[in-house]
Amino acid sequence: MPRHHDTALSRRSVLRAAGLAAGGLALGPRFRPAVAAVLTGRKSTDIRIRAVHHDFENHRFRTPLKFGGSRMDYLAVLNVTVRVERPDGQSAEGFGSMPLGNVWSFPPRYVPPEQSLAAMKRFAEEVVRIARDCDDTGHALDLSRRMLPEQLQRARQVSTEMNLAHPMPKLCSLVVISALDAALHDAYGKVNGVNSYNALGKEFVHHDLSHDLDERFKGKYLDAYTLREPKGTMPLYHLIGALDPLSDADIKERLNDGLPETLPEWIERDGLTHLKIKMNGDDLRWDVDRVLSIDRVTGETQKRRGVQQWFYSIDFNERCPNVEYLLDFFARIREKNPRAFERIQYVEQPTDRDLLAHPENKMHAAAKIKPVVIDESLTDYESLLLAREQGYSGAALKACKGITEALLMAAGALEFKMFLTVQDLTCPGASFLESAELSARVPTVAAIEGNARQFCPDANKEWEKKYPELFIVKNGTVRTQGLTKPGLGH
């Protein structure tokens, strides 16, 4: 960790970390160095937070999205602007944005959606306050990690103050924090005139990954797990929600708003080759029939287009009761349509996100058939290690969990040779660009997600004019080669 002034960590940081530990909040290995580390000196590229501002914007969905047994028809977006300063007085502003995906990160089974959203908005104010009070200097990675223990403690306090029936989950807290984290990375790159993904090596960062992960990463930095240039183009995964019409027969009344309304219309307009299918997870016959129906409709459409190869990802949103359900799903798809089974690239989080509470859900057998990816469960390095023990063979990175956390989890997963994907949170505008660059900079990620263009297109209108190569899908792909500017690339 970097020092405040020239000889030691800031007094506030030491007292804050010590106070959190004394108050019963366990500090994991990545936070202990904040109390004990002594460094040789700060860097000329270090930043200090000088100002923080935030606001919210709200959008209605064009059509409802059903996933994980829940229905979503609105989007609340948190925007954060941060002004930072280097030791030489140079300053710059960074911007971060993220939808507050409360239905996904704080499910209705815990608290009603209106309560979870209100809690996230209130917590956002605390995240901003903590950032304003931060007097530390360092890399964006350092500042984010320094503030995280206090942020998580404050999330618990907000939960108590609001009398929530269930405390705000860590996943939900990370979603709120992610907008600030992105703004810090963006500002760090801009003030130093470098793309943030090219400022992850030893010359910029104060310590190696062993401080954040474990001794297997001694002497290694994040630049070893990211690309110096973004991939030129990336296929886009199109989402098929449980309510989405596959054909004209599924539509009771057309919207007639100029956008596609059936799966064939989307495929033909955007040239799609990657389809993400939302499952119910509690009705095996429905789930199998849904995949077979999608494959039939897609096959007919692709035949007209002369396309012979396309892919599926399967997302159960932790709804499967057990791993046997997933194994039965695989067996029935393979028996009824071997070609459809071959097109499945991977499966996301089939069973409950609480891995500790459900150690019986071992994924070893399923992972031998298809990559099984941890998603909702992945909130830190410890959860990545636990998922590996339980048989998960892949990990889903998300900008909504924070650029810092996503990069650390990418390093861990790449070191362990796990399957990697970057996933969406119905991210519009800047939040989609943050996710796009993360996808384009992590070596083994093969595709990008972006479903705001389907469900919340109005939120993308102005961004589409500025970045048509990223917001307009052609031949099933978006062009990411231009994400090279200082900061987060756009």
Structure characteristics:
Enolase-like, domain 1; 17 helices; disordered N terminus; 2 domains; 18% strand; globular; 490 residues
Question: Can you walk through the features of this model?
Answer:
Helix content is 38%, strand content 18%. It contains 17 helices and 13 strands. By secondary structure, it is of the alpha/beta class. It is globular. Helix 4 packs parallel to helix 6. Strand 1 and strand 2 (70-85) form a beta hairpin. The model is unreliable at 1-40 (pLDDT under 50). The strands form two sheets. Strands 5, 6, 7, 8, 9, 10, 11, 12 and 13 form a nine-stranded mixed sheet that branches. The protein has a four-stranded antiparallel sheet with strand order 3-2-1-4. It has two domains: 11-194, Enolase-like, domain 1; 222-479, Enolase-like C-terminal domain (TIM Barrel, Alpha-Beta Barrel), CATH 3.20.20. The chain has helices at residues 11-22, 33-36, 102-105, 113-133, 140-161, 170-191, 263-270, 284-305, 323-336, 338-342, 364-367, 381-389, 403-415, 429-441, 452-455, 461-466, 468-471, and strands spanning 47-67, 70-85, 91-99, 137-138, 233-240, 274-278, 311-315, 344-348, 372-374, 394-397, 419-422, 448-449, 477-479.
